[in-house]
């Protein structure tokens, strides 16, 4: 048996991939055995998923094979699903095997938070993975075909998006672009199509710059989105949703984009969590577990004012870099680095050629913001896969 420390990374999302890439750069030969485990043999760009979900881009553009990202001489990749984390004997149980670890990195990403709303788990769809967006896209297209056979069923042409956070807003922007195209392809009168974005809070994008929120709503309303603001969804049924004061909206398509929580496997492992997220220490370790690091949507960190940082790809990537540094430092018995989030801003797309953003202390909207969004996407491709990945997946047109 070798004495080389074993590092196991769970999840090849933004946090896991950045951790793996930095470890492969920073570790010396034979300094540690690193294994990356992921459900699929590809890494997907969650930040891109609203497009293939609406059908405005190909699924292929939202993913890359993991073997193209990592150096498999330095990192073992295991395509499998984690089913249990056993901290007491430092093991991870996979659907088809077991892995032992000395150090564990948990980066399994979030799960949809339904807040116990009846019917939401059963009847709504979520924008979470390549498989979930395939389903959404096919489902939407199928509704047009169904309507042609049953023209009295206008609920087939009613689309409800729950939550006007960034996911909901980005998705309705794309869907509003796609629906006219689907009407044309299927000879459907566009005036029969309804697209609702329903938000419980008194404003869309709660907490974001009000001027930019106003701009986003104007752009999206013009594209045909009907906003219902201050109107919580109370139930999801096979026929649609119940909102506000028991109003029923009949819709054959409900997309739930109203929040994320951490991963259930973590709470099942007995690690302390708040809504499935681990309140990590300043070095990104789970409380009471010096050998377990948590990154991305599975982690919970607070800003200097005591408010939780929103779970974003941006913070997950920065955590991955510090996590890798701290793993190497732990192995070398060196001091750990403190994680400090450097907020580079937020840019959200509103469909083709339109976006809003706050970055570098400035507000952006319209085409300039859309270009900024594209630059952010390209920067990410460059960070993980260099110029070849930018050329392959970066969309320049
Ligand atoms: P993820 O990226 O979710 O990756 C988790 C990985 O773990 C996945 O590969 C998954 O397959 C794998 N996995 C899960 N369970 C298992 C299991 N049991 N076994 C094995 N593998 C498993 N953030 C931004 O900063 N900017 C944006 O523009 C932005 N846009 C977004 C747009 C949309 C539509 C959505 C939904 C989110 C967006 N976000 C954005 C948020 C961002 O995508 C997440 O915060 C980010 O993906 C979190 O990264 P992560 O590494 O924690 O997990
Ligand atoms: P979110 O939690 O940010 O937003 C969910 C929205 O749903 C909230 O506005 C909430 O008030 C609303 N909501 C909750 N319950 C509801 C109900 N019963 N009925 C109607 N509305 C309800 O979730 P998200 O938008 O999925 O974003 C998740 C994370 O990903 C956030 O941190 C976000 O910043 C990030 N993200 C970033 C971008 C970007 O930067 N472009 C894009 C997408 C997501």
Automatic annotation (TrEMBL):
UniProt entry keywords in alphabetical sequence: FAD, Flavoprotein, Oxidoreductase
Domain spans labelled FAD/NAD(P)-binding: 6-320
InterPro entries recorded: FAD/NAD-bd_sf (IPR036188), FAD/NAD-binding_dom (IPR023753), NADH-Q_oxidoreductase (IPR051169)
Tagged with keyword ATP-binding: no
The UniProt record lists the keyword Zinc: no
MF-aspect GO terms: NAD(P)H dehydrogenase (quinone) activity
UniProt record similarity statement: Belongs to the NADH dehydrogenase family.
Name assigned to this protein: NADH dehydrogenase
Species this protein is from: Paenibacillus taihuensis
């Amino acid at each position: 048996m070798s004495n080389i420390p074993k590092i196991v990374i769970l999840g090849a999302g933004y946090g896991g991939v950045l951790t793996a890439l930095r470890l492969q750069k920073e570790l010396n030969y034979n300094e540690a055995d690193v294994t990356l485990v992921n459900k699929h043999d590809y890494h997907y760009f969650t930040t891109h998923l609203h497009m293939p979900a609406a059908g405005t881009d190909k699924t292929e553009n939202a993913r890359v094979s993991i073997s193209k990202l990592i150096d498999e001489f330095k990192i073992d990749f295991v395509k499998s699903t984690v089913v249990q984390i056993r901290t007491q004997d430092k093991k991870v149980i996979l659907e088809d095997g077991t892995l032992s670890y000395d150090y564990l990195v948990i980066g399994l990403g979030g799960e949809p938070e339904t807040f116990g709303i009846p019917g939401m788990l059963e009847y709504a769809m979520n924008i979470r993975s390549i498989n979930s967006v395939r389903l959404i896209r096919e489902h939407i297209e199928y509704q047009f075909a169904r309507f042609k056979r049953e023209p009295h069923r206008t609920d087939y042409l009613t689309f409800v998006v729950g939550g006007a956070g960034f996911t909901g807003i980005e998705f309705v922007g794309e869907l509003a672009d796609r629906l006219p195209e689907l009407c044309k392809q299927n000879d459907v009168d566009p005036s029969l199509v309804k697209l609702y974005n329903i938000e419980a809070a008194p404003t869309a994008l709660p907490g974001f710059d009000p001027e930019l929120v106003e701009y986003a709503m104007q752009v999206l309303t013009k594209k045909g989105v009907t906003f219902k603001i201050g109107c919580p969804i109370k139930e999801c049924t096979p026929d649609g949703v119940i909102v506000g004061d028991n109003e029923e909206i009949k819709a054959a398509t409900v997309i739930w984009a109203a929040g994320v929580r951490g991963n259930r496997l973590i709470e099942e492992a007995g690690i302390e969590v708040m809504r499935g997220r681990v309140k990590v220490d300043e070095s990104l370790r789970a409380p009471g577990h010096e050998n377990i690091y948590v990154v991305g949507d599975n982690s919970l960190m607070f800003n200097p004012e005591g408010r939780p940082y929103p779970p974003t790809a941006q913070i997950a990537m920065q955590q991955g870099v510090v996590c890798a540094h701290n793993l190497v430092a732990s192995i070398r018995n060196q001091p750990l680095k403190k994680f400090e989030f450097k907020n580079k801003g937020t840019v959200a797309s509103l469909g083709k050629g339109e976006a809003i953003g706050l970055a570098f202390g400035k507000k952006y909207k319209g085409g300039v913001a859309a270009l900024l969004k594209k630059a952010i996407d390209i920067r990410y491709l460059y960070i993980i896969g260099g110029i070849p990945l930018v050329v392959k997946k970066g969309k320049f047109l």
